[in-house]
Design goal:
Structural class: alpha+beta
Strand order of the largest sheet: 7-6-10-9-8
Distance between the termini: 134 Å
Oligomer: single chain
Helix content: 25-40%
Number of domains: 5
């Protein structure tokens, strides 16, 4: 041992200096190490010679002689190895068969891919021809070796597929590292095999995610070549392999994720060359999958100049709508976003198919049908007939026209038809044609291109028909649609195409149209206010929602349902309805139909103190018993069923602005003559007080609705139902008045007598 130079090493992670020539050891930190209660002085040169003697005694059968003289980690390994190796210390060199080795190599291919470059770099740093570097799997199989030119003897003894555990190789740093899953350093005689007593071996574990051991990196070199930094290099190399493996896992996960997302991702270099593209991107651009070359963006798009300008500008782009003609004859309409690559001159493109983006936008704004046919309450023959016809209509994409008075549930039927159709998972977009301002209705329905008009969004905006792509659009109050928009709607029905405001390209749309109105479209056609050709296009299938007065037998069940729902919304118990109250409700005419009934019950619930809702409660919210007088000739049998009396006939809802013979405004309930002003004040005060004490979460809005309803009703009465005059009287626009009438359940009704 005198031939060795002074070298540094670690014992139990404590730096030591050893000069074999002088036989002197100097420990850098503490001067002694305690083994099983016995103090060992590392400054004693005889320590290392004592290890050799201790091992000799151990092999001779005196294991107690090694206690306290050899590191516990090493001694315990000797004890475990002796039964396998025997007193002759013959290694059981065992290799896997080729098929098994191939399988192990395949299992550890990622570890090998990450480790081999690190091992090659480590050898360049070590620069010794006497160094051996080994990579072992977590189950103890030798996967890779790098042997210096002066270590051919070791090379002959090391074969890929060797089993490196203690039971095969004895006490080695690799075997101990596999067992302890921590850094292990063995010096000289600490190796059980005599042929390894001139070696220094350092092994470090390689960990993957969640502290899962992947393998062991080992460096073996002659003792005289050991340097203080050798252990540090092994540790850093093992950590580098772990980091590379972790990064590889992340990249693999990211690649798998990118291949699954429905956004097209395309990476371009500064010249437009396609460096990478995920599955969606390749599909959108009609690019063949690997290993076919991706080519250049100019080879894919008929005109990519705009894209190349984007790349050169290196500016971020957000959700720009683009139309591309593909070189294979196809086309692509998409929402394009782009971002420059840092420290590069390329760009990353994000492509969203316009139809998917529009459907996503439609869903984000609540464009979804809520109700089904089970949501429609009632068993009357007229209602069941409408339901059966609606179910038939739902099985096709045919255009459907729903006729009925305000508040009869036309939108409810539209929801149900959509949810029963094959388009139920697609958007359901509702448009109130009467509430949209005339100067905005075209842009709202058909969208607009960038710069179409002053104040337009710079990226343009899709219209309602585009948002409803693949689904259903419900055009409520279609009788109020302006003539110019009627022509565009007719083109859509005929050609299945739209053209944005300010645009020149036709856009294909796949949308089902359900229209509804409370107006008399035939009369509107006769008056020249509605296109005849559009009328016949819309009424392919015509449904009629019956008013409440034609299905009085449904009112009790409907009232009970509405009261229960409203009580739940107000977080109040359902008080129920008295029998007399149900009979009273069934006897009223309800010009506002279900909407008016719902409003009345909601207000009655606000004033209710917890007892079942009575006739008095209903009369309070309806202002007077005369507000909705029972229909003339109404008969109620002993079972409580109600129905219209013979000889009473009512016409469809009127469509004119004024009244003709027999016309009356709904809820035309002038205050009884002789009511003192102070009584009116007391009535108003009682309403306000009841609202404030009711527990209503928004009593102010409730009071305002009651007052607004009364004001609009009185204006209509004074103007004899002329909505234009009533709007001027109130200082409102006509569309605003119509919206208020719909909100309050007010409607102009025409009655024609048989006389």
């Amino acid at each position: 041992m005198s031939k060795y130079r002074t070298c540094a090493f670690f014992v139990d992670n404590v730096r030591c200096l050893w000069c074999p020539v002088s036989g002197h050891i100097n420990r850098s930190s503490t001067l002694s190490e305690v083994f099983v209660g016995k103090t060992i002085d590392y400054r004693d040169a005889a320590y290392w010679k004592d290890i050799v003697k201790a091992k000799q005694a151990f092999l001779a059968g005196d294991q107690a002689a090694a206690e306290g003289r050899v590191r516990p980690l090493v001694l315990e390994s000797w004890k475990r190895c002796l039964p396998f190796l025997g007193t002759k210390l013959a290694k059981k060199r065992t290799c896997l068969e080729q098929s098994a080795l191939t399988h192990v190599m395949q299992q550890n291919r990622e570890l090998l891919a990450c480790a081999i470059p690190v091992i090659e770099y480590l050898n360049t740093i070590l620069g010794s021809s006497s160094t051996v570097v080994l990579l072992t799997s977590s189950d103890g199989v030798l996967l890779h070796k790098h042997v210096g030119t002066k270590s051919r003897a070791a090379a002959a003894l090391l074969s890929l597929g060797m089993l490196m555990g203690e039971e095969y190789e004895g006490t080695t740093s690799t075997a101990l590292c596999l067992r302890e899953q921590s850094v292990v350093e063995l010096f000289g005689a600490e190796h059980l095999i005599r042929e390894e007593e001139d070696l220094c071996c350092i092994s470090a574990p390689i960990f993957g995610g969640k502290r899962r051991m992947l393998g062991v990196l080992t460096i073996a070199l002659p003792l005289e070549l050991y340097h203080l930094h050798t252990s540090g290099m092994v540790l850093m190399a093992a950590k580098d392999i772990s980091d590379q493996h972790h990064l590889h896992d992340l990249l693999s996960d990211q690649e798998a994720i990118l291949e699954q997302v429905d956004t097209g991702i395309v990476v371009l270099d500064k010249n437009g060359g396609i460096k990478a593209a995920n599955c969606t991107g390749r599909s959108m651009l009609h690019i063949s999958p690997p290993p076919a070359p991706l080519g250049n963006i100019n080879d894919v798009l008929g005109s990519a100049e705009s894209l190349l300008m984007m790349i050169q500008s290196r500016k971020n782009i957000r959700d720009r709508e683009c139309f591309f003609n593909l070189t294979d004859g196809g086309s692509l309409q998409c929402m394009l976003s782009a971002a420059p690559i840092p420290n590069d001159k390329g760009m990353v493109l994000f492509l969203h198919e316009a139809s998917k983006a529009q459907r996503l936008a439609a869903h984000s704004v609540g464009a979804k049908a809520i109700y089904t046919f089970s949501s429609i309450i009632g068993e009357s023959p007229s209602l069941q007939k409408a339901i059966e016809l609606s179910k038939v209509a739902s099985h096709s994409n045919i255009t459907t026209l729903i006729l009925g008075e305000s508040g009869t549930g036309k939108e409810l039927f539209a929801h149900a038809i959509h949810n029963a159709s094959a388009r139920k998972n697609a958007p359901f977009v509702v448009v109130n044609c009467g509430a949209l301002p005339r100067d905005l209705i075209q842009s709202e329905l058909f969208g607009y291109d960038p710069g179409a008009f002053t104040g337009a969004q710079k990226q343009g905006k899709p219209g309602k028909f585009e948002l409803a792509e693949g689904g259903t659009i419900f055009l409520d109050e279609i009788g109020d649609m302006p003539p110019g928009i009627q022509a565009k709607l007719l083109r859509l029905l005929q050609e299945k195409q739209i053209q944005r405001l300010g645009g020149h390209d036709s856009i294909d749309v796949d949308v089902r149209i359900i229209a509804a109105t409370n107006a008399n479209l035939e009369q509107a056609v006769a008056d020249g206010r509605f296109r005849e050709d559009l009328y016949y296009r819309l009424k392919v299938v015509t449904l009629r929602t019956p008013p409440l007065r034609e299905r009085r037998e449904d009112i009790p069940a409907l009232a009970a349902f509405l009261l229960h729902r409203q009580a739940a919304e107000l977080h109040r118990p359902d008080p129920g309805l008295e029998e007399e109250a149900l009979r009273y409700l069934a006897g009223l005419d309800w010009p506002g139909n279900v909407r008016e009934l719902s409003n009345a019950l909601q207000k009655a619930l606000v004033f209710n103190s917890g007892a079942p809702v009575s006739i008095r409660d209903l009369q309070l919210v309806l202002d007077s018993p005369a507000a909705h007088p029972p229909a003339a000739g109404l008969s109620i049998n002993g079972n409580g069923d109600t129905g219209p009396a013979p000889g009473v006939r009512r016409s469809p809802v009127g469509t004119g602005n004024g009244f003709h013979e027999g016309e009356t405004p709904v809820e035309d309930a002038p205050a009884p003559a002789g009511v003192p002003h102070n009584d009116e004040q007391r009535s108003l005060a009682s309403i306000v007080t009841a609202c404030l004490r009711s527990g209503d979460p928004s009593p102010f809005d409730t009071c305002m609705d009651i007052m607004g309803r009364a004001v609009v009703r009185e204006a209509l009465r004074q103007c004899r139902g002329n909505r234009s005059q009533a709007a001027r009287l109130l200082g409102l626009s006509r569309p605003t008045l119509l919206a208020r009438m719909e909100k309050y359940g007010l409607k102009i009704e025409t009655r024609i007598s048989d006389e």
